Fold these 2 entries.
Entry 1:
Amino acid sequence: NAGVTQTPKFQVLKTGQSMTLQCAQDMNHEYMSWYRQDPGMGLRLIHYSVGAGITDQGEVPNGYNVSRSTTEDFPLRLLSAAPSQTSVYFCASRRTGKGEQYFGPGTRLTVT
Amino acid sequence: ELKVEQNPLFLSMQEGKNYTIYCNYSTTSDRLYWYRQDPGKSLESLFVLLSNGAVKQEGRLMASLDTKARLSTLHITAAVHDLSATYFCAVDRRYSGGGADGLTFGKGTHLIIQP
């Protein structure tokens, strides 16, 4: 199993550009989520999904969209990038809503 | 709103010493998670504590959970340089239906162990 994979590893965007961060898992997990990590802030939940076709907002959802058309994939879209979205983004999955979360390797995003 | 507080946030210690990291959280929860993060890397799961009184040990690390006090501890015994990392505790967020929607993390404890 590859576990949770994310692409790209690094990305630089200009303010106003849009892009999609990819996340995939091969563990047949129902729950998937996106976090951002900023220095001194720990990780904060952006959006999550409890299964294909079901998504909802987390703690810091503004400026981001998600969709979940398959169990395996959970892409995160930045609609119009802003410097405040400079961060490291982690995708995670868990089998149910009660178990251990597994994290992907992260995407380091810089918005200039 | 669920809050998770870790202390200390920074810790520099010498090899061979013992120390404890504390994690307090503000709402009732019977599950708590500890993660390790090395610089530039992802989060590695260390412990999953699933009930009051749970204690788990792996090598020089031992974690415990007291749900009544809303407190978890991560104890380091006879520290070695390889344990230098940032340690996070996390608690399940809101419950709805089958489970939580994600984790709320503490800000992390940056641990430096000097030879």
Note: The interface with chain A takes residues 4, 31, 33, 35, 41-43, 45, 48, 88, 90, 92-93, 95, 97-108 of chain B (CB under 8 Å).
Entry 2:
Amino acid sequence: GAGVSQSPSNKVTEKGKDVELRCDPISGHTALYWYRQSLGQGLEFLIYFQGNSAPDKSGLPSDRFSAERTGGSVSTLTIQRTQQEDSAVYLCASSSFQAKNGYTFGSGTRLTVV
Amino acid sequence: SQQGEEDPQALSIQEGENATMNCSYKTSINNLQWYRQNSGRGLVHLILIRSNEREKHSGRLRVTLDTSKKSSSLLITASRAADTASYFCATVDTGNQFYFGTGTSLTVIP
């Protein structure tokens, strides 16, 4: 597609349940990033995929968070045993290898843990 | 588009000098943020300035915002070799949509 697609756009889940968030990057973009934004705050880096290299997971806040990128394209971010502090907007971005045209962000998934 | 544009695209300075990067944008914003990216790493949030603020400081960073000119500047004082990175401005509109520029590549020579 023309842009980065994220689904679902909104997700309300009960505390303790697992959730999966999906990101479909721009075709041909080798780099994919996951960020989290709490209300009124800046973006918090979570994880970075670049081609076939091992992902940079240094931003994942706990072992309840994991992400995969299958076939160098679609990525899923999984949060296990969700907590209320996980409530945020989760943003995905993709770019070409050297980000010569900057980053393209998806519209995000708003996660609410009740 | 709303995408922020950084200027210059690349900047090379000696350690100890100040580095200034500029960002221009096109439409109304809720806030403007500056990010840094080291090679091969994710974006790191540096500072956020709201549309009703004109200047903000954080350590060696100074950010200004001129909404009448739709521009912002990031000043890094007393630069260090470790400041070598790409710096991006991001504008956030009232719908919380982010728009990133293409960045300024800063090289600080020891």
Note: Residues 86 and 105 of chain B are 4 Å apart (CA to CA).
